[in-house]
Amino acid sequence: MKFMILKKSQALPAILFGLLGAFAPLSSHVEAAGAFEKFVDPLPIPPVVDLSQEMNWGDTADLTMTIGQFQTSFHRDLPPSPSWGYNGSSPGPTIIVAKGQKLRVHWQNQLPMAHIFKLPAGLSRMCSMPDVRTVTHLHGAVVEQPGIQDRVHDNDGWPDAWIVPGQEQISEYPNDQDARMLWYHDHAMASTGRNVAAGLVGAYLIRDDFEQFLNLPSGDYEVPLILQAMGFNGDGSRYYTTDISNEFYGNTVAVNGKLWPYMNVEPRKYRFRILNASNARAYAMKLVDLTTHEAGPAIYQIGTDGGFLDNTLTLNDPGNPDSPRLNLAPAERADVIIDFSQFGGKNLLLQNNSLDPGDGEMPLPQIMLFKVGPQVLQPDTSSLPMQLRPIPAIPPETAVTTRRITLQQTQAGNMQMMLLNGKSWSDPITETPILGTTEIWELVNTTTSMHPFHIHLVNFQVLDNRPFDLAQYGNNGQITYAGAAQPPDPNQVGWKDVVQVQPGTVTRIIMTFGPYAGYYVYHCHILEHEDMDMMRPFQIVSPYP
Fold first, then answer.
1. CA distance 354 to 363
2. N or C, which end of the chain is more exposed by having fewer CB within 10 Å?
């Protein structure tokens, strides 16, 4: 399978275009700059730091993670290019801990003083800040963040508490959470998009006894798949968006740091821990036979952001043409099992059809290839449970208040801005929930694009979403509902820390604030939106003086 890097003659990012079938010209200004093959690089597996068996209960493990720059090869036929990562790897090492096992991480910034990507237009207000600054956020972690002034001891990754090369951030993670996949990434104010695009991402797994009881595929048969959209020019160099008002969709997708890799699998069950670590690109995935295009094996989703679902979802069901795909917006995770036992000798394509052409996103229908071998190397004794961990619903009547958070696009001079309730990051805090109380938030998307909405510290449940008249809202600012409230999609149920807020809808979520009082963040997880101030602080207030 060949694909080509196509280069625009204008001063725009090159377009890397490789679709199933024949090539199609994109414009009269496109010229071929080279060709090379897909599915020639084996899927790399990030290094593993497994602490789950090493510590006694109550002890605190210490781990040093260096944030540095190095050369890496994203494809067999591409020259090495500079990348950022953790401990010499991008994605960084997969950190594994046991529930309740305390971990202290020393995030050491050892980057050079100059960024590998230029500062995008629209962030000139940040020119007074150092070009290279980092602060690491463990996404989905329940951590105490009582203050926001300490740049050294920072557990949650407060955006303004960035450090520069030669400095260290020390974070304490209690890990008192059920089994789930978290992930760590940079969260520096107005540089998150650049830093994540440069490679600052990594997986973090929490284990517990219930997970062990389920007898899921493990060891070599549990594999992380970290999807990250990247941009490559015709000469093989990398690019990032030149204007912060343009979301960074890239023109390729790397899986665990390789473009269009393949993975040799046995005809047996595998567990995949999938993370969408892309800045803006969402994915709608299914498996198909590379040759016949017939549906491949079902994808059984057993978990999401906040751990196990109550019941296993069947996606990509080959017997049901209407079976849903696996949908992941930026920052969402999916815990899935795929049984390859009936597909020996087949080449199965992980296909994607998610696209928002209104934002200039180009299609990337091919992600990676699974090459299924003829036989297993050892018997498969793992299980595929259909019933998992019960999830008690939070009763809406227990909410002490309902807040409305409006997602808006505004114009600031020549620049488009994305804001929440019309406020910027530096405006005074307006959300002050009381520790231990439950609230409903109405997320009103007045824009024409989906926004993945993330809240730090807490997990929430999605109640429903309801369409409203977007055109009428544009005329008079009033919300007029255009239909009945709809329940969340099946893979938006359970415990979540990111929710897809579709355009022209009001999405209601419910959560209980705790277990800590302090300062936290909510924001859109399209990182260019976050960097242009679609991010707000909130404070959980103790009820006691």
1. 8
2. C
Domain ranges of the chain: 48-208, 215-372, 396-540
Q: Which residue has the tokens 């090492």?
A: 93
- DSSP line for 150-181: -SSB-SS--TT--B-TT-EEEEEE---S-SEE
User: Of the given ranges (43-57, 241-255, 490-504), which has the lowest mean pLDDT?
Assistant: 43-57
CB of 426 closer than 8 Å to CB of 437: no
Helices (H) and strands (E) in the chain, counts: 4, 33
Q: Is the pTM of this model over 0.70?
A: yes
CATH superfamily of 396-540: Cupredoxins -  blue copper proteins (2.60.40.420)
When pLDDT is cut at 50, 70 and 90, the band that residue 125 belongs to is low
Superfamily of domain 48-208: Cupredoxins -  blue copper proteins (2.60.40.420)
Which tokens in the block code for residue 403? 């807040």
Whether the per-residue pLDDT at 405 is higher than 60: the answer is yes
What is the number of other CB atoms lying within 10 angstroms of the CB of residue 475? 8
Q: Are 48-208 and 215-372 the same fold in CATH?
A: yes
> Looking at the domain that runs over 215-372, which CATH code has it been given?
2.60.40.420
* DSSP bridge partners of 35: 4
